[in-house]
Each structure stands twice: as structure tokens, then as C-alpha cells.
Design goal:
The protein is an alpha+beta fold and 279 residues long. Among the domains are: 53-147, Nitrile hydratase, beta subunit (Cyclin A, domain 1, Orthogonal Bundle); 178-277, SH3 type barrels. It is 33% helix and 12% strand. It contains 10 helices and 5 strands, in the order H-H-H-H-H-H-H-H-E-E-H-E-H-E-E. It has a 5-stranded antiparallel β-sheet with strand order 4-3-2-1-5. 19% of the residues are buried.
Length: 279
């Protein structure tokens, strides 16, 4: 049972979390926001490539049991047609906000995405989920004692009555993105073409890295046909498949002050709508 002192200490910790500019008040009036800061606020949280950060030591850390379990849960939800992988990425990477995206463990965000999609799609009620969390906490009030937690489901079902998404039903036996093969029409670009990445406004979700926008690259291969992530993440039924390309960029032209060799390149997949002929 928490005390008034416990609650005060917890709220003090919350108050230290900051996702706003320290020189601005919270929820600033429009006249205090310039275009650059507004752009920074709207930048999708998971698109962190190129942002300055403290140095980090690379460690070949082994996954913990809960991380393995979380991965399996997410894969099962996809296999059973509960969600699309792009939904998981958006819910777990972007819709959390920058503070939680940068502050939580990688698979911690995945786990929150599981809870959210199950509640939003009415596979479980939020009240029921909260009660179950309390039950698990009570079961391990003295800690795990070095043992893995054990599942104690209240019931087991065959799942035949669970509503599957349309994308899943279409892809059964074919795979994704193979299910979209032959639907995108003629490719606008060919291997070897010079292309420039368009500077489309990136609202809510995208998989095109910010650091390649407006950059010139070269098509190295045609990857596959699929709806663009901006449409697929909401499982739009009218999303039109388009070609995805592997585009190669010279790192010296991408990064200001790059000190590597002129031969260093980066390759990334980009959907057709983001590309135009390089002038």
C-alpha cells in the first residue's frame, strides 16, 4: 500500500521527465514556437538516425526471458491476424511519444503495444487487464526467487471466433509481401537510376529515414511490391501497392563532416512515393 510520501516521491520523479525545450513553458502559446521547433515536435519519435547522443559502449547482451516471451507474443498476434507488423511498429515506437520511446527498454515498448492493441481491438477489457496485473503482482510479491514466472490462464480457447484482419486472410498460404506481387504495375525506376528522396511531411508514421530526405542516391535493386508503411500501418483497405526500392547513398554526402572514406555507402528500402528523378 503506497503512502502519501510514496506518492510524492513518485510524482517528483515524473516531474523530472522532460520532452519539451527547457526555455519554453509547457504547452507554449503559438507565438513562442518557431518553425524549426514545431518541426522537431512533429518529427516521428522512432526516426532518430543522425541525432546527437551520448557515447555508448557496444555490448553483446543476451536477451532476457521476458524479452524472448514478448517477441513470441508479438509474432503470434501477427500470425493469428490480430495486427500487422506495421501496427506494432507504430504503436510501440511512435504513438508512445518521444519521452517513453527513448526512456523504455526496446521490448518494453513492444509489450505496451501488445496491451494496447488487445484493448483497442476489444480482445480484453482494460479493467480486466488491470485486475490481472494485480493478481500477478500478488503471486510474486516476494520476487521470483530466480525462477521464471508461470502462466496461469483463466481459460483456453481455440481462437476460431477471433476476428482476423483482411490483410492476414489474403496472405495465408502466400506470405507478405508476396501477396501483393503483380499489383503495383510498371516500376517508375530501374536499377542504376539516380533518384532524389522527396521531402514529404512525415506525420504520425513513416519508415523513410529523415536523414535521407532531399538526398540523391542510386537504385540498386527493386525489392518488392507492398502498400507504403504510411497506409499499411492503419490497415487501409484501399491502400494501393507500390514498388519498394533499395537505394544506395554515399555517406560523405549524407552526413555533414563525415570523416570516412569516399567509398562508404548506406543502403535502405524506400517506397516509390518518396522518390523522384534526380535533376
Amino acid at each position: 500500500m503506497s503512502t502519501a510520501e510514496d506518492r510524492a516521491a513518485a510524482l517528483d520523479l515524473v516531474a523530472r521527465l522532460k520532452s519539451a525545450y527547457p526555455e519554453l513553458p509547457d504547452a507554449p502559446p503559438p507565438d513562442l514556437l518557431d518553425h524549426a521547433r514545431l518541426w522537431a515536435y512533429l518529427k516521428t519519435d522512432h526516426d532518430v538516425g543522425g541525432e546527437p547522443d551520448a557515447a555508448i559502449t557496444y555490448e553483446n547482451k543476451q536477451y532476457e526471458v521476458w524479452e524472448h516471451n514478448t517477441y513470441v507474443i508479438c509474432e503470434v498476434l501477427a500470425w493469428r491476424g490480430i495486427w500487422l507488423s506495421e501496427e506494432r511498429r507504430r504503436i510501440g515506437n511512435v504513438d508512445l511519444g518521444r519521452t517513453m520511446y527513448l526512456g523504455l527498454p526496446y521490448y518494453g515498448r513492444w509489450l505496451l503495444a501488445v496491451a494496447r492493441v488487445l484493448v483497442e481491438k476489444q480482445h480484453i477489457g482494460l479493467t480486466e487487464l488491470s485486475e490481472r496485473l494485480l493478481e500477478v503482482q500478488a503471486r510474486y510479491v516476494d520476487g521470483l526467487g530466480g525462477k521464471p514466472p508461470t502462466a496461469q490462464p483463466k481459460f483456453e480457447g481455440d481462437g476460431t471466433g477471433v476476428v482476423r484482419n483482411r490483410h492476414h486472410l489474403a496472405a495465408v498460404g502466400k506470405g507478405d509481401p508476396q501477396v501483393f506481387a503483380g499489383q503495383a504495375g510498371a516500376a517508375a525506376f530501374a536499377v542504376g537510376d539516380a533518384v532524389r528522396v522527396r521531402e514529404l511531411p512525415a506525420l504520425f508514421y513513416t519508415r523513410t529515414p529523415e536523414y535521407v530526405r532531399a538526398a540523391v542516391g542510386r537504385i540498386t535493386s527493386l525489392a518488392y511490391e507492398s502498400p507504403a508503411p504510411e497506409d499499411e500501418t492503419w490497415d487501409r483497405h484501399d491502400a494501393t501497392p507500390e514498388w519498394f526500392y533499395v537505394v544506395e547513398f554515399e555517406l560523405a554526402r549524407l552526413w555533414h563532416g563525415y570523416t570516412g572514406t569516399a567509398a562508404d555507402v548506406l543502403r535502405t528500402e524506400i517506397p516509390e512515393r518518396w522518390l523522384q528523378v534526380a535533376s
